[in-house]
Design goal:
single chain, 139 residues, four-stranded antiparallel β-sheet, 4 helices, elongated
Length: 139
């Protein structure tokens, strides 16, 4: 279960633009007693749920394939790539090469044929659960 949960945790940590912290960095809105008010379970609950997931408790991961299409694969990879390598750099490496190979998405940037100043990004991750097995940028 831990192996299945960690890729998603990693994805969301990379995808967030704000720094992560052990303290609550987001203010919870003041309660208004309106009928459509949402219940906030809080950080203590989040910590408990995370611990239980890492220990293999709770609901198991039951999907056979979470990321089924090339557009979903790109939508999964881009926030990570933008955060790690910079949005402008990654956008300049379009069009991407995108292949589903043996249950893994391979996505790589491209560079112009006459370009001799470096390479492009490469990311490989599981179509089943999003676990990243390679994330690099060639020079």
């Amino acid at each position: 279960m831990t192996k299945l949960f960690l890729p998603f945790l990693t994805f969301f940590l990379f995808a967030c633009n704000s720094p992560t912290s052990t303290t609550n960095t987001k203010e919870i809105p003041e309660r208004t007693n309106e009928p459509d008010e949402h219940e906030i379970l809080g950080e203590a609950n989040a910590r408990k749920q995370t611990r239980e997931a890492l220990e293999g408790k709770g609901q198991p991961f039951t999907w056979d394939t979470l990321i089924k299409t090339s557009s979903a694969a790109i939508a999964t990879a881009e926030p990570i790539l933008f955060n790690v390598f910079g949005k402008e750099r990654i956008i300049n490496e379009k069009p991407y090469e995108v292949y589903l190979i043996d249950g893994y998405w391979y996505i790589a940037g491209t560079v112009p044929k006459k370009y001799n100043k470096g390479g492009a990004f490469e990311i490989i991750f599981s179509a089943r659960d999003g676990k990243i097995i390679r994330l690099t940028h060639y020079k």
